[in-house]
Design a protein that fits this description.
By secondary structure, the protein is α/β, with parallel strands linked by helices. It is built from nine helices and twelve strands.
């Protein structure tokens, strides 16, 4: 009888351990970076919301997994994936060739019909329409973004200084305070900024390098999650979920 009880207890412990492992394998920490409307932001109740947030939650439902959000500075996302500290991120990330050298990407899940063009945002009292008008000015870009890469590639040719910040909101406030002159930012983000800042205007960033398009989910290198998420993306595209989210978050801004 004693042997039977010991065996039963051992079986119970193994069963509980198995359940724990299953729960852990069905849970993923997802990196994002709020303050990038309409992709991801904090609502009035302090919760994450936006296109990327709702898309990832729909993907999690399709995959049957639980997600835990981790809101971080955008500039640290690529490094966190590259080091293997985290496995998945969604934050309006463009899958550039340079980024593909260190991390993996899903298929592109969103790209507007016109492409995700970049814009210059500045005080409406300024007259800035071309890159030549940036001579001697200070250009603000969010740390770690393709806009940072773009600004750095153009700075010497057009004689402007590049300043990085952790968020576009911080740059906007510094434009108002006359610390930074211009913000380089994606078209949809510029629309959201102008909606809440009447003192700002925008002009298209007319450069061969400016039309960098498409957003994808980012993964640590060789992650097994890529195939699973790509399959789920196909399902959400076919059943209309992604189109519905685009209509909710982007149509009014395009």
């Amino acid at each position: 009888m004693k042997v039977y009880k010991v065996a039963l207890i051992a079986l119970l412990i193994m069963s509980l351990a198995g359940c724990k492992q299953k729960d852990e394998s069905d849970t993923l920490v997802i990196l994002t970076s709020s303050g990038y409307e309409p992709y991801e932001m904090i609502d009035t109740k302090g919760n994450l919301t936006g296109f990327d947030i709702e898309l990832m939650e729909a993907l999690a439902l399709e995959l049957g997994i639980t997600i835990i959000w981790k809101d971080v500075d955008f500039g640290g996302i690529i490094g966190s994936l590259q080091s293997g500290q985290y496995e998945v991120a969604i934050a309006g990330i463009t899958p550039t060739d340079e980024r593909k050298e260190s991390i993996d990407f899903s298929n592109v899940y969103y790209n507007s019909e016109a492409g995700l063009q970049n814009y210059m945002v500045y005080l409406n009292e300024d007259t800035i329409t071309t890159l030549d008008d940036l001579d001697g000015l200070v250009i603000g870009v969010q740390l770690g973004t393709i806009q940072e890469e773009l600004a750095n590639s153009l700075s010497k040719e057009y004689n402007f200084t590049v300043e990085t910040r952790n968020s576009n909101a911080q740059i906007v406030e510094e434009i108002k305070a006359n610390i930074i002159d211009v913000l380089f930012v994606e078209s949809l983000i510029s629309n959201s900024i102008l909606e809440s800042n009447e003192v700002l205007v925008k002009a298209i960033l007319d450069s061969d390098l400016a039309d960098i398009t498409g957003n994808a989910i980012a993964f640590s290198k060789d992650s097994l999650q890529v195939v699973l998420f790509n399959e789920a993306l196909v399902t959400l595209q076919e059943n209309g979920t992604i189109d519905a989210l685009v209509n909710t978050w982007f149509t009014k801004n395009e």
